[in-house]
Design goal:
heterodimer, A: alpha/beta, 6 strands, about 10% strand, elongated, B: mainly alpha, 9 helices, extended
Chain lengths: ~270, ~220
């Protein structure tokens, strides 16, 4: 029996994980989410910006990470549109274009934001470091036209935005190491303030930059997205999913405990 | 000659770009800007090379009939369809968007979602307290896993509101202790280790860059003469 438990068929684990996801999805519950300091710092920074300021929102992720990063993007956009903060969207990741454009358009429709006046989406350009460095001098030298092929000189919002000097904050939503490129080439070279929203697996990489102040804030995975939704008082998918994730984490912890008990009892019996 | 020219170019551009970082003079900054412009023009060509390499790899797989060689045809079909629609009409075209939203997006998201199942299974097998190091890893993982989700604080707060503990002065101070412990792990041991890794990697990158500029490290030139 114990040996069976120690060597449990992985398909049983798969079924248990599926149930831990499906059941709370069918019968949602609401657990209290505590707000972490890095998330609160980013929220406060944007909240304290003056009306009409501009931030840059970078969609450096693909479909594999949208579950974690889309809720963050939506929450930040909602906060910005409600506070009349202009948003310049772009991506350094080719597959981020369609997702970024659809997402910005969706939130803009919800908040009655106007394209070209409240937000723009510049799309993708290859050459990560070169794009970041180039925009430090002149955004139009990299993006002559936006994603929809409109010359950026024809977008009213972009008339007042030449380079990072007019951008209060770059928020990089990333599923890889692109945040580090933003820190190296935009923060270090141009003193541009950077914040990040990253997937759960790379949170730990970001902490040295938080401590040095090179990141002014950090949204960590789906938990961070849920925190941000709570802060903007608009709970959405982030809150729903973190509650579901709670059950999966709890299941894994229980499996680990059961596995260890079985392992030790089994070893004792063998001795 | 095929090796000497790239080595000379690498040395000259490496040294010049390094020097531009130490001089604010207009000539120096002009050179810097110009080289950046060249690099911006050259970069998109890397996409062409990577596409050619991908095609060559799959042509070889089909020719040699290696395992699952039939799937390589799907790569060709995928590239052809996206290129035929994407190049003339652009990524904003409804057909391109439809293919992205209904083919690439769900497939990519599904592949990544499967990780949850494999991680759960791997955690069950791997997290065994066999020795001190494994036990430390296990305890840390459990704290971070629970601290990262609301249920961690729920369990913790229930625990400290348990009568034998709830009368103590700490019960209030230690509310939401699960996320506090997770944050402490990220802020202290994790941060220290990460900083060490970053410093080590950075020193490695600097030394490797010097080796490349000076022509000591030549593996980037590939094989042959």
């Amino acid at each position: 029996m114990l040996t069976k438990l120690v060597n449990m068929d992985r398909r049983i684990v798969f079924i248990l994980v599926a149930l831990a996801v499906i059941i709370p999805m069918l019968f949602p519950i609401s657990l209290s989410v505590s707000i972490s300091k890095p998330t609160k710092d980013l929220y406060n920074f944007i909240d304290e910006l003056e009306e009409g300021s501009a931030i840059m929102l970078v969609f450096d992720y693909g479909p594999s990470s949208l579950a974690e990063l889309n809720p963050m993007a939506k929450a930040i956009l909602k906060q910005c549109f409600e506070k009349d903060i202009k948003v310049v969207g772009l991506t350094l990741y080719a597959v981020g274009t369609t997702m970024g454009s659809d997402l910005m358009q969706g939130v803009a429709d919800e908040k009655n934001a106007v394209y070209g006046e409240d937000y723009v989406f510049l799309g993708y350009r290859p050459g990560i470091e070169l794009v970041i460095l180039g925009m430090g001098d002149d955004i139009s030298s990299i993006y002559e036209k936006d994603y929809y092929e409109t010359p950026i000189s024809q977008l009213p919002m972009m008339n007042n935005i030449k380079n990072y000097d007019q951008i209060e904050l770059v928020v990089d939503l990333s599923s890889g190491s692109l945040t580090e490129s933003w820190i190296t080439f935009a923060n270090v070279q141009f003193n541009q303030k950077i914040a990040a929203g990253v997937t759960g697996v790379i949170i730990s990489q970001m902490y040295p930059y938080l401590q040095t102040g090179q990141l002014i804030g950090l949204i960590s995975g789906i938990a961070g997205a849920a925190e941000y939704e709570i802060l903007i008082k608009d709970p959405a998918k982030g809150v729903l999913w973190i509650n579901i994730e709670s059950f999966v984490h709890l299941l894994i912890v229980l499996l680990v405990i059961i596995g260890n008990i079985a392992f030790f009892v089994n070893r004792k019996q063998e001795e | 000659m095929k090796r000497q020219v790239p080595l000379i170019l690498c040395f000259v551009f490496g040294v010049v770009m390094l020097l531009t970082q130490f001089s604010p003079h207009s000539v120096s900054q002009g050179v810097y800007e110009e080289v950046l412009n060249w690099a911006r023009i050259i970069t998109p060509f890397a996409l062409i090379f990577s596409t050619i390499t991908l095609l060559q790899t799959h042509i070889t797989r089909i020719r040699r009939k290696t395992e699952h060689w039939q799937y390589s045809f799907i790569v060709f079909v995928g590239i052809a369809v996206m290129v035929i629609i994407g190049i003339p009409y652009g990524p904003q075209h409804p057909w391109f968007e439809w293919l992205f939203n209904n083919v690439q997006l769900p497939m990519d998201a599904t592949m990544f979602s499967l990780l949850a199942f494999f991680i759960a299974s791997a955690a069950y097998r791997a997290f065994r307290a066999r020795n001190v190091e494994a036990s430390l890893l296990l305890i840390t993982a459990v704290i971070v896993m629970l601290g990262n989700v609301p249920v961690g604080n729920l369990i913790w707060n229930k625990l400290i509101s348990w009568p034998p503990i709830s009368w103590t002065p700490w019960s209030e101070t230690f509310a939401d202790g699960s996320s506090w412990m997770k944050q402490w792990i990220l802020d202290n041991p994790n941060l220290s280790a990460r900083r060490g890794i970053i410093l080590g990697v950075s020193l490695g990158v600097i030394s490797q860059s010097i080796r490349i500029i000076l022509g000591i490290e030549r593996s980037y030139l590939g094989g042959g003469d």
